[in-house]
Design brief:
The two termini are 42 Å apart. The chain is 54% helix and 20% strand. Helix 3 (137-206) runs antiparallel to helix 5 and helix 6 (258-272) packs across helix 7 (294-310). The chain has nine helices and 15 strands. The protein has 405 residues and is α+β, with helices and mostly antiparallel strands.
Length: 405
């Protein structure tokens, strides 16, 4: 994914999430306001109907009214609230408007003066009929509770979905970077032996004096053979790790002598790194063995040893200690290399992951060796750990069941 496209996708995801939360919040606020408005309209309607039944116009002046007992007014309001399905405490009052300030003539109800309330008035000259009820805030929220919970759950689910989408986008970006790096590294690594073998073969084909000289011919053929072996090793490393995850073949478990496996791996690496002055320190307990697949176990140990040499200075020093303790075989491989930063240690066993220095790679490779070693150890029901300090080398420890899986 291109950088611009990735940023646009991430921005769209974040904006969508913000828009969703905003819409949900606006909807909840509007729903609350509408329910509160409807509640107040119901209270006004109940007061209107009760006032019409309660207040009787006088015979002499239809503009004035006579009032009866406050209990009757309260009973009319209670009946109206019950009919409307509103279960709330209330208070009714009859006030006189003959003075500057209304004066309470009669009152009846249970509402505390300090409560949050809503009051509505009905003006009937020279009186005011007032109905006071508890504020419906908690009632409305109680009615909206299920809807609000469902909204909250849906928002949480969508947030997790968006976070997962962003994580997937970041992962896709990382995979794309790894793919590009892998392609570049493979191309670079494969070109060298191909070019060397091609040059040596062309020299034998076009230069008769080289072909006719047995010494020179054998020398050039040795170059071709060496480069082809090197090329074959690269291809095998890629294929081995690429197919290992999907293979269904059973491991061939047998009694393996750790010393024999380590020696075979060491000899192979001595040939590969003949130009390096590798110092080996191998300490293996007498009779140290394990029930495992010898071929794959040697490959796993070779991969770790290979990294120990590859990521070490000009004179690599590699130590290997193998012991058996309480039903487990332990193989510890330590080097004097560049070390691994703590932030990278968890990822070193991931496929195609390679240790970087800044924004560049310090050595060539495909990031498959430690992944392969980790896969093999796990298939043997074992464990592999790393203990490293940047600039002070690394120590990989393999733990395998002594008597197999």
């Amino acid at each position: 994914m291109r950088r611009v496209n990735f940023k646009i996708a991430a921005l769209v995801v974040v904006l969508s999430l913000v828009l969703l939360v905003t819409v949900e919040a606006i909807w909840a606020v509007r729903t609350y306001r509408n329910m509160r408005s409807n509640y107040e309209l119901q209270i006004c309607s109940i007061l209107e109907e009760a006032a019409w039944k309660y207040a009787t116009p006088s015979v002499s002046d239809n503009a004035h009214i006579n009032i009866g007992n406050i209990s009757r007014f309260n009973a009319l309001v209670s009946e109206g609230l019950r009919t409307a399905g509103l279960s709330t405490e209330h208070r009714v009052e009859v006030l006189s408007t003959t003075d500057t300030e209304p004066i309470v003539l009669m009152a009846m109800g249970e509402i505390e003066p300090s409560s949050d309330v809503i009051s509505v008035d009905k003006h009937l000259r020279p009186l005011i009929l007032r109905l006071t009820v508890l504020d419906p805030h908690s009632t409305i929220l109680g009615n909206m509770r299920r809807v609000l919970i469902l909204q909250l759950l849906s928002v949480i689910v969508l947030i997790f979905a968006f976070v997962y989408l962003l994580h997937t986008l970041f992962r896709a970006k990382e995979v794309d970077r790894i793919r590009r790096d892998l392609t570049h590294n493979i191309t670079h690594e494969l070109k060298t032996p191909i070019a060397s073998a091609y040059a040596a073969t062309e020299a034998l084909h076009t230069m008769p004096h080289i072909y006719n000289d047995p010494t020179a011919r054998n020398e050039y053929l040795a170059i071709v053979l060496g480069e082809l072996r090197r090329l074959n090793g690269m291809v095998e490393e890629i294929l081995r790790s690429s197919t290992e995850e999907f293979t269904t073949a059973e491991l061939r478990i047998e009694e393996c002598d750790i010393r024999s496996i380590v020696e075979a791996a060491r000899l192979s690496l001595d040939l590969k790194y003949s130009s390096c002055r590798v110092t080996w320190e191998i300490d293996i307990d007498e009779g140290c063995s394990v029930a495992a697949d010898s071929f794959h176990l040697q490959g796993a140990i070779s991969a770790i040893l290979d990294n120990a040499i590859k990521y070490s200075p000009d004179n690599p020093k590699v130590s290997l200690r193998a012991t058996t303790n309480r039903g487990y075989t332990y193989i510890a491989i330590k080097d004097n290399g560049i070390g691994i930063a703590r932030s990278q240690q968890r990822a070193v066993f991931d496929r195609f992951y390679r240790i970087t220095e800044g924004d560049s790679y310090s050595t060539s490779g495909y990031g498959l060796g430690l992944y392969y070693a980790h896969s093999i150890v796990k298939r043997h029901n074992g464990d592999i750990t790393v203990d490293s300090t940047l600039g002070q080398g690394s120590c990989f420890t393999i733990k395998l069941p002594r008597y197999g899986r």
